[in-house]
Amino acid sequence: MSHLMKLGGAVALLAIPAAALAQPVDLTARAMVEQRKAAPDGTTKITLAPAARVTPGDRIVYQLSYRNTGREPARDLVIANPVPANLVYAGTAEGSAEPELSVDGTRFGRLQQLTVRTADGKVRPALSADVRVVRWRLNDPVPAGGSGQVAFRAILK
Predict the structure, then answer these.
(1) 86-115: per-residue pLDDT in tens?
(2) Whole-structure pTM over 0.85, yes or no?
(3) 31 near 87, Cβ under 8 Å?
(4) Which of 90, 111, 119, 121 could cross-link to 153 by cystine, CB 3.0-4.6 Å?
(5) Positive or negative CA dihedral for 40, 42, 43, 47?
(6) What does the pLDDT look like over 29-44, one tens digit per residue?
(7) Whole-angstrom Cα distance, residue 15 to residue 105?
(8) Cβ–Cβ under 8 Å, residues 53 and 22
């Protein structure tokens, strides 16, 4: 029996410092599935397609696009996206800045810096499967009318 699963759109949120709340920024999330095809030269070509229906083991790319719809530069923007429970974080997507990661939604850093407390009270290094939130801090202001994109990869459980 084939296990097909519908993968809904990503639930992304834009966190903005209180002083910047008046900055109008649109955020759009898309889930894409990696498709591998053999090329005539013997290599494998990877393309992205909308993730309308996916099966366990499929590689997903979450693309988060942002656009400043205001008249002034948007400053100090933070884009955060929870990793859905049916996915395992698999790294930064090609062409995207490296995100900060969190296993609990409060402490962020690189995966090698994070730890997880186990049920028996011991602490162990965090694994990709422990990542619950992915976030990017945009260092540069987004000019009026400006846009960009960040993305991460995941694997369907």
Answers:
(1) 899 999 998 999 999 999 999 999 999 999
(2) no
(3) no
(4) 90
(5) positive
(6) 999 999 888 888 989 8
(7) 13
(8) no
Which residue bears the tokens 């909308």?
50
The answer to whether residues 74 and 25 touch, using CB atoms and an 8 Å cutoff, is yes
Fold of the domain spanning 5-156: Immunoglobulin-like (2.60.40)
Of the candidates 99, 28, 18, the residue with the CA atom closest to the CA atom of residue 69:
28
Contact yes or no for 111/131 (Cβ under 8 A): yes
In total, the chain counts a number of residues equal to 157
**For the chain, domain boundaries:** 5-156
Alpha-carbon radius of gyration of the chain: 17
Closest to 84 in 3D by CA, of 2, 7, 4, 150: 7
Compute the distance between CA of residue 133 and CA of residue 139 in angstroms, rounded to an integer.
19
Burial of 37 (C-beta count, 10 Å sphere; 0-12/13-18/19+): exposed
Q: Which residue has the tokens 């009026």?
A: 144
Place of tokens 């028996």: 120
Q: How many beta carbons lie within 10 A of that of residue 105, not counting itself?
A: 11
> Residue 69: which region, alpha, beta or left (left: phi > 0; alpha: psi -120 to 50)?
alpha
Q: Which residue has the tokens 């939604």?
A: 105
